[in-house]
Amino acid sequence: NAGVMQNPRHLVRRRGQEARLRCSPMKGHSHVYWYRQLPEEGLKFMVYLQKENIIDESGMPKERFSAEFPKEGPSILRIQQVVRGDSAAYFCASSPPLKFEAFFGQGTRLTVV
Amino acid sequence: ILNVEQSPQSLHVQEGDSTNFTCSFPSSNFYALHWYRWETAKSPKALFVMTLNGDEKKKGRISATLNTKEGYSYLYIKGSQPEDSATYLCAFHAGNNRKLIWGLGTSLAVNP
């Protein structure tokens, strides 16, 4: 069973461009979470999704950020019109339906230049 | 606002020393407390999930205790080894919410 797969591992975008981060959860996991780690800060919750549904997006910035977890395919975190302050490591985690233990991917490091 | 506090922020010990660190969390609306181990350039790996007051969990030389009434958990490492060097994170689940609230971690360095 492959772990949580995130790609790309590193992403460089110019200010104003769009960033798309992908996360394939572990097989059998229907819950996906996105976390962000800003420089010198801890992990911060962004959004929690089940297949085709956003359950909790209380940690998502109100503008430019969106997430989806379609019926088929990976979960996508999309950041439009990126700014320097979006530079961070973005981690995805997944968990099975009846358990709370989350399994993490290796993260995508976004750098906005 | 839910806060999870970890102390110390960093720790340097010699190989063979035993050590422990603390995680403090809100004592109300408790559901679960998680400990994760995070090595540099890797992803966080779950160590323990603890749900009951008085829980004690053990995995090899690492163990953890939980006090939900006063809102703290201790992680112990017996006979530290260089490969134990990592950041140890705790995370709190409130109620039945799957969202994890994270502490900033304790960074452990074990010198050979």
Give the H and E element order of chain B. EEEEEEEEEEE
Number of E-state strands of chain A: 11
Number of helices of chain B: 0
Could you tell me the strand content of chain A as a percent range?
over 45%
**Into which percent range does the helicity of residues of chain A fall?**
under 10%
Mean pLDDT of chain B: 92
- Major beta sheet summary of chain A: 7 strands, mixed
Structural class by SSE content of chain A: mainly beta
- Low-pLDDT segments, ≥5 res of chain B: none
Alpha-carbon distance between the termini of chain A? 36 Å
Amino- and carboxy-terminal Cα gap of chain B: 41 Å
User: Which word captures the global form of chain B?
Assistant: globular
Query: What pattern of helices and strands is seen along the backbone of chain A?
Result: EEEEEEEEEEE
Helix content estimate of chain B: under 10%
Rg calc of chain A: 13 Å
Layout of SSEs?
The complex is a heterodimer of chains A (113) and B (112).
Chain A: E1 5-7, E2 10-13, E3 19-24, E4 31-37, E5 43-50, E6 53-56, E7 65-68, E8 75-79, E9 88-95, E10 103-104, E11 108-112
Chain B: E1 5-7, E2 10-14, E3 19-24, E4 30-38, E5 45-50, E6 56-59, E7 62-67, E8 72-77, E9 86-94, E10 100-102, E11 106-111
Parallel strand pairs in B: 2-11
Antiparallel strand pairs in B: 1-3, 3-8, 4-5, 4-9, 6-7, 7-8, 9-10, 9-11
Question: How would you characterize the overall build of this protein?
Answer:
The complex is a heterodimer of chains A (113) and B (112). Chain A is an all-beta fold. Chain A has no helices and eleven strands. In chain A, strands 2, 4, 5, 6, 9, 10 and 11 form a seven-stranded mixed sheet that branches. In chain A, a hairpin with a 6-residue loop joins strand 7 and strand 8. Chain B contains no helices and eleven strands. Classes of the chains: A mainly beta (113), B mainly beta (112).
